[in-house]
Structures are given as C-alpha cells and as structure tokens.
Specification:
The structure is a single chain. The protein has five helices and no strands. It is an all-alpha fold. The protein has one domain.
Length: about 70
C-alpha cells in the first residue's frame, strides 16, 4: 500500500465515522475484520473513487456496507 492509498483509506474511514457518528476504530474494524472492504473495494478501486467528492465516496461505501450487513 502506498502513502496515497493509506491517506485515502484514512480519509474514507474518518468520513464514514463522521457520517455514522462512530469512532474511526469501529469503522476500521467493520472494513477489515468484519469484512474485507478496505482492501477489496476501497484500496482496489482507489483510482476511480479518489476522483469523486466526499459525499459520493461515503454513500458508495455505505451502500456496500448495507448490502454486506455491516450497518443497518
């Protein structure tokens, strides 16, 4: 993972945490231990995702989290 990928992963985790009123550690757990979304989606689709605005990124990841049963 490069620094740009790490920075983007942190941005996504913190943005999701803010949106869901959770802490970053809880979101990180959902994206890594409860699923593999961090590596398989966020990092794997970095090139397309990082060009979008914050609201789009958060909603896109939330849609997947809902489908995976990670958030209500």
């Amino acid at each position: 993972m490069t620094k740009k990928h790490l920075d983007f992963a942190i941005f996504c985790i913190e943005s999701l945490a803010e949106h869901l009123n959770k802490n970053g550690a809880e979101i990180y757990t959902k994206l890594t231990q409860d699923s593999n979304l961090l590596d398989n989606y966020i990092i794997n689709h970095y090139e397309a995702l990082h060009t979008q605005d914050k609201e789009y990124i958060v909603q896109d990841i939330l849609d997947i989290m809902h489908k995976e049963g990670l958030v209500p």
